[in-house]
Design a protein that fits this description.
By secondary structure, the protein is an alpha/beta fold. It has helices at 4-13, 22-33, 37-40, 49-60, 69-79, 84-100, 108-113, 116-130, 141-149, 157-160; strands at 18-20, 65-67, 102-103, 135-138, 154-156. It has a single domain (4-163), classed as 5'-nuclease (Rossmann fold, 3-Layer(aba) Sandwich), CATH 3.40.50.1010. 61% of the residues lie in helices and 9% in strands. Strands 3-2-1-4-5 form a 5-stranded parallel sheet, with helices on both faces.
Length: 164
């Protein structure tokens, strides 16, 4: 990791915790199952093996790795949209990751009453809510801009992909 801002951001949040958005958690799961699956899975084939390795490197700096039931559900559904043998291996990897990552819950009733739900949907509204306490790593430029507008730290993965 060559970028000083990226290093500072990771150092600042490494002991507080990390959240991945749905697309990056999916990339993480697919690569964790088998790095070669990244190229062959229709939901991750826009990423490279270098992207996965870079994401893995980022994640490895965090003691506390967090996810949401909303993200887990989306990833579980998206991960299975592939060949049955690949889907089974990815499902097994997802099981292992679910035991290694801490799960946070944000009540849907509270999220849908908030201002972010209409514009961003339930999962991203939950990520916005939790971005006050944890660093969000996202590939969603619109979501990253919203968090920046709220003066929250956010790691826009796409800004650093060339470093991979």
């Amino acid at each position: 990791m060559e970028n000083d801002y990226l290093k500072e951001l990771i150092q600042k949040w490494a002991t507080k915790g990390l959240l991945l958005d749905t697309n990056l958690f999916l990339l993480f799961v697919v690569g964790f199952a088998d790095i070669e699956f990244i190229r062959n899975h229709k939901k991750t084939n826009s990423y490279s093996i270098a992207d996965y390795k870079f994401l893995y490197q980022i994640v490895s700096h965090f003691r506390l790795k967090l996810t949401l039931p909303n993200v887990q559900t989306e990833v579980s559904n998206l991960a299975r949209q592939t060949h049955p043998d690949m889907a089974k291996k990815i499902g097994n990897a997802l099981q292992r990751l679910f035991t290694a990552w801490s799960e946070l819950y944000e009540p849907s009733l509270r999220l849908t009453a908030g201002s972010h739900y209409i514009d961003y949907g339930l999962t991203d509204a939950a990520l916005v809510s939790l971005s006050e306490k944890y660093l969000l790593v996202t590939a969603d430029g619109r979501l990253a801009r919203r968090l920046s507008d709220l003066n929250r730290d956010v790691l826009n993965f796409n800004h650093y992909r060339p470093l991979a």
